[in-house]
Design a protein that fits this description.
Layout (H helix, E strand, L loop, with lengths): L2 E4 L14 E6 L10 E5 L5 E5 L4 E4 L2
Antiparallel strand pairs: 1-3, 2-3, 4-5
Length: 61
Amino acid sequence: MKILYWNARGIGNLDTRPLNLKRFALNFRSHGIPNLWGFCDINIDPLVLQLSEQHMTFSLS
């Protein structure tokens, strides 16, 4: 299983495509750009349970 959970700028940029990961979630902030992104292997389908400005909760089965 391959999941990347990152909260730093830059992972959402176009030059990160070679990682071969899909984005399954990102948070929406009322005053700025997203700061949380959830990426996973293209064969995994995580279920997003909750998103906020400060955290994300997801389930894998």
